[in-house]
Amino acid sequence: MDSMRALLSQYLRAAWRRRWLGVVVAWLVCGAGWVGVYLIPNQYESTARLFVDADAILTPLLRGLAADSAPTTQLEILQRTLLSRPNLEKLVSKTDLDLTLNGPSDRERLLSRLAGDVKVTPQTKNLFTITYRDKSPKLAHDVVQTLLTIFVESATGSNRTDMENARRFLEHQISSYEQQLRGAEKRRADFRARYIEVLPNDTNPNVPALEGARNQAQALEGRLQDALIARDALKQEVEATPPMVVVETGPGQGIGANGLPVAVPKTRLQEAEDQLRMLLLRDTENHPDVIAQRKLIESLKAAPPENAGPARATSAASAVAAASTAAGRDASNNTMKRSVPNQIYDQLKVKLIDADTQLISLQRQRDEAVRYRDKLEKIQREQPGLLAEYQNMDRDYSVLRRNYEELLSRLQSANIAQAADTQADKVKLQIIDPPEVPRLPAAPNRLLLITGVLLGGLVAGAGTTVLFGQLDRSFSTVDELRSLGLPVLGGISVLGLLPLRQRLMTVARFGAAVAVLVGVYGGLMVHVLRSAALI
């Protein structure tokens, strides 16, 4: 610790002996630095803020219906391509920057400088700023304004141009696919017309014609066997059923044409009496209908016998009379017996005829299906690659048709998207803060630079004194001299010290030199603040 204190004391004494050298160096550094700060030209900054509104209503409505132009992605691309070389060349031509150029090399340097100096900074998703600095405030304003114009033109025109190019491309592709599709349809139709019996049908395209013919023949064979079994069973039942049956008839009954007992028809008088009984159940004796009915009964009773006979002659009555005369009458119970045709037998005979007819029809259908199956098998053996050729042709046709329909859908989407861009303005650009001609410089920061120059001058002065103190070969103490290894007899401990007044004057002069330097710094700071209208 004592050695460090002694070393520090040595450095301070060496620096104090060369204090005026440090003051001169500080003044020179500060003076040169402050002059250099004031020689730096002013940089004027022009800024504009732009708000981009990607329509939040129209875009969701058209999603899935129109081509998705992705306004947010487009704006990101525009931000990144705003400083492209074509845009920068357009900027140079519109702001007359090319009038100061002397050759291609100057133009390249100007384009590179513009690409680095122009700043496009996004603040939010839809808000960003365009900033540019230049020595001329008017030129800074013109550059930002021109960039805004270029951005607006690109945002409103590039998407429409792309949509128009895409629409023309789609129309060209649709025309080409339409011609190919027509050719494929014609080839497919001709091939199908030539081999329609072998190819799969349109109702079930996944089942080949040969397999369908085999299934149909097998199904008809099964139906034929079922019909044959049913016909044989019905035939046995007909053979077991008697064609005639014996029936008995009571009084007042006869045998009808169908072999069943039938009732003898009533006379007109009986019918009138039955009608009167029905009327009396509903009406009284004095009712007009009841009176009229009684008069009708009296007239029928008074009529000749031929008028009171049966109300109508029927074939059934004739059949009863004929059957009564031909049949024997049983005197004990007053009944008749007679053999009549069996109605069940007749019905079974009709069913047997229908079964034979259906069997013949199924045999004919089975024979035709077998012939058709044999024909297809023959064609399949003779031309094994026919189905594969048709499948390849059908696959090509399906691909062309699917692509054609997809292109038509894309064209409709492009038309809707183009209409939305041209008529509804999906992307709206709004300039929040337009660029203005700057009145105060934005750079350099003279306050910071002046302060830095002062600190640098003070550090340079102090460093100079310390450096020259290190280069000094003199000895300040007896111990330093003894470190050389030489015998030291003694040292003068007390020299003639300067009077206190002289020492104070020395310190005052040194402090005045440093204070004047700091005062100049303060004056420069006040001047800079007044120039920037801060005070």
What would your notes on this structure say?
This protein is α+β, with helices and mostly antiparallel strands and 535 residues long. Among the domains are: 2-40 and 444-489 and 497-531, no CATH class; 266-311. 65% of the residues lie in helices and 9% in strands. The strands form three sheets. The protein has a four-stranded antiparallel β-sheet. A hairpin with a 5-residue loop joins strand 5 (253-255) and strand 6. Helix 4 (71-81) packs across helix 7 (137-194), helix 5 packs across helix 7 (137-194) and helix 14 (446-471) packs antiparallel against helix 16. The longest helix is centred in the first third of the chain and has 58 residues, at 137-194. The model is unreliable at 65-72 and 306-334 (pLDDT under 50).
Report a brief summary of the structure:
Among the domains are: 2-40 and 444-489 and 497-531, no CATH class; 266-311.
